[in-house]
Structure formats: structure tokens, C-alpha cells
Amino acid sequence: MNFPSNLYYTKDHEWVRVEGDVAYIGITDFAQKELGDIVYVDIPSKGKTVAQHEVFGTVEAVKTVSDLFMPLTGEVLELNAQLDGAPEMVNSDPYGDGWMIKCSIANPSEVEGLMSAEAYQGLVH
């Protein structure tokens, strides 16, 4: 399994890539493997401010639907439009083309509370 060290992680299996005052968010390699083949990503929160730990959308796999939890408080600025036609990118490239949302970072101190790659790896092993 892949745990890029430049990302932050949550116990709910989301990852965060901070770029200045915005963050890219997706689900981890571990999460996509647990879910299986992803068939739909539903994120109705574009343009809304979502608080940390609140649900910002769902991901649907063949066997289950899972909530997506916001790792950081912020406004959802952009959805990954490629996932509409190719949700399987979450399976094939969870940390790259399979990102889900781009959001503003309302409270930078929340980043400090996220897990490192090492801590997350310890959680899932």
C-alpha cells in the first residue's frame, strides 16, 4: 500500500495535500482497497463551507456507500469533474487523478491535528 509522506491523513481514511491556503482532499489507498470498485462519487457541497469532521459527500462502491468526512474546515471550491465519467480513478490513482475536492483552509491550525504518513500507516496495519 502507498502512504505518500507529503500528505496528511485522518482516522476516517481521507488524505489532505496542502498547497498554500487551499487543500486537495481524497480517500487513501487503504480506503479504496477496502471499498472495492468505486462506481460513483457524490459531492453536493460545492460552494458550501463544511466544518471539520462533517460529511462533504459520499463514495459508492459496488458493495457499499461510505460517507466522506471533511478533514479541515473550509469552503469547497472545486470538485474533480473527471470523476463524473471515471470514478474508477479513485481506485487507480487515489493520491493523484483520483482527488475529490479542492477547498479553502479556514483554520490552518487544524492541519497540525492531522496524522502523518507514519501515524496513519500505524493505524491501518
Explain the overall architecture.
This protein has 125 residues and is an alpha+beta fold. The protein has one domain (8-108): RNA polymerase II/Efflux pump adaptor protein, barrel-sandwich hybrid domain (OB fold (Dihydrolipoamide Acetyltransferase, E2P)), CATH 2.40.50.100. It contains 5 helices and 9 strands; from the N terminus they run E-E-E-H-E-E-E-E-E-H-H-E-H-H. A 6-stranded antiparallel beta sheet has the order 1-2-3-9-8-5. A hairpin with a 3-residue loop joins strand 6 and strand 7 (65-69). The longest helix has 8 residues, at 117-124. The radius of gyration is 13 Å and the shape is globular. The mean pLDDT is 96.
What percentage of the residues does DSSP assign to strands (E)? 25-35%
Strand and helix order = EEEHEEEEEHHEHH
Structural class: alpha+beta
- Total domain modules: 1
Question: Count of helical segments?
Answer: 5
Shape: globular
CATH classification class:
Mainly Beta
Enumerate the spans where pLDDT stays under 50 for 5 or more consecutive residues: none
Distance between the termini: 10 Å
Q: Averaging pLDDT over every residue, what do you get? A: 96
CATH topology: OB fold (Dihydrolipoamide Acetyltransferase, E2P)
Q: Under the CATH scheme, which architecture would be assigned?
A: Beta Barrel
* Major β-sheet profile: 6 strands, antiparallel
* Side-by-side strand order of the widest sheet: 1-2-3-9-8-5
